[in-house]
Amino acid sequence: MRILIADDHPLFRDGLRSLLQAEGHEVVGEAKNGNEAVALARELTPDVVLMDLQMPELDGIGATKLIVGAMPEMKVVILTASEEEAKLFDAIKAGAQGYLLKNLEAEEFFELLDGAHRGEPALTPALARKLLQEFAKPAEAAAPASTSPDDLTAREREVLELMVEGVTSNRKLAKRLGLSENTVKFHVRNILDKLRLHNRAEVVGYALRHGIIDK
Predict the structure, then answer these.
(1) Fewest CB atoms less than 10 Å from the CB: which of 82, 131, 160, 168?
(2) Against a cut of 0.90, is the pTM above it?
(3) Is residue 156 situated within a structural domain?
(4) How far are the Cα atoms of 57, 58, 185 from residue 147, in angstroms, in the given order?
C-alpha cells in the first residue's frame, strides 16, 4: 500500500513511518500541513492519505474535502487524538474513508487501514455507532436529493438493504449477493451518485432516516 502521511508533528511522522514500513507499506511522502497534503496527494497519487485534523495553514477537514473532491477514488483516513463527535461527523461528511484515534493498538490500526484500502469504512465499533446515530437523526432543512430513492434499481436496493444490516465491505456484499467485487463497487457508486451522498455511512443514515429499507 502506498501511503501519504499528513501530520505537523515530526516525531509522530517518524514513528508512524517506521511502523508502516515494518508492515511492508510504502510511505511515499510526508506533509506537515494541509496545503502540503493536497499538493503531495495530487503529485504522488497515494492509495491512502493518513490525515491529522489539527494542522497549520489548512486543517485536515479542509484538506480532505479538496483531495476527495479532486480525486474521489483516493482514500483519506483521519488519524487524530480528537474524540470530539463534531470532528468525526465533519470528517465523514468531508469524504473521509475513516476516522481512527491515535491510541489504537497496532493490530487494530492495520486491520482497519487494510479495510479502508479495500473501500470499507475505517471506524472502530464505538465510533461507527456514534456516526450511525447521528446520521439516523431527522435532517433539519436538508436539501432534497436530485434523484428519488424510487429511482434505485432492484439490485441497488438489495445492496442498500445489506449495508443497513451492517454488511459494508465489498467482499462480504459480493459473497452475499453472488456477484464480483467490481460489480458491487459499481452498484455502490450508483447508489452514492443517485442519492448525491459521499460515502457508505451517509447512505446508511439516509436510508434509516427516510425509511427506504423496511427493518
Answers:
(1) 82
(2) no
(3) yes
(4) 37, 33, 20
- In one-letter notation, the amino acid at residue 58 is L
State the greatest distance between any 2 C-alpha atoms of the chain, in Å, as a whole number.
51
- Residue 8 is given by DSSP the state S
Q: Are both 44 and 125 inside the same structural domain?
A: yes
Report d(CA 167, CA 170) in Å as an integer: 8
Lowest mean pLDDT among 9-23, 33-47, 171-185: 171-185
37 and 80 both lie in a single domain: yes
Dig out the grid coordinates for 211 from the structure. 425509511
How confident is the model over 162-192, as pLDDT tens digits?
888 878 788 889 999 999 988 998 998 888 8
- Name the grid cell of 81: 487524538
